Amino acid sequence: MSHIAEFDAAFARCPLVAILRGVKPEEVERISEALVEAGFTLIEVPLNSPDPLDSIARLAKRFEGRAVIGAGTVLREADVTAVRAAGGTMIISPNANLRVIAASSESGLVSLPGIVTPSEAFAALDTGATALKLFPAEGSSPQVLKAMRAVLPSSIRVLPVGGIDPGNMGPWRAAGAAGFGLGSALYKPGLTAEAVGQNARAFISALAAL
What we know:
The structure is a single chain. The chain has 210 residues and is α/β, with parallel strands linked by helices. The protein is built from 9 helices and 9 strands. The strands form 2 sheets. The protein has a 6-stranded parallel sheet with strand order 5-4-3-2-1-9. Strands 6-7-8 form a 3-stranded parallel sheet, covered by helices on one side. Helix 7 links the parallel strand 7 (132-134) and strand 8. Helix 2 runs parallel beside helix 9 (193-208). The longest helix is centred in the last third of the chain and has 16 residues, at 193-208.
């Protein structure tokens, strides 16, 4: 199965990306186990976390066949190569760097660039993006997403990221959000695996209720 097909299958099971910004390698497996047990299938370790490639390598080995593992805050083509070597298959960025998107696509990796305008969205898709990250969602709105959805191909998945919590997913979902990237409302440094698991279950329940 290709990395894109694995992502598609994981996304169909749970369209929530767990963003573990600041996580350390020595705790990442415990925290991710709590996420996977709750139902999460997509896990991102941002590259501005401590020793992120070590964390990605650990997760890729432990959760092979159970979850798709990738990197966030991927800003350079060289980062794509490093993440792939560590076993990561998902490349997530806060911006729409066409060189990073192309490098990801050419390597057969999942590309999730950050966009805020239709121009960025279409340029990213033309370059090979798998799906789109609407970031920062706090600076956008469900109304903006709805307008964007009117011109984007219906098959394109858009995930709002930034400020998402279990109580505000509804309007975004109604506007056409296919899924979400979840940050500090799910995980932040210092939280135990038990607390992260509790947060994860709250997100899963909220999504199921929509």
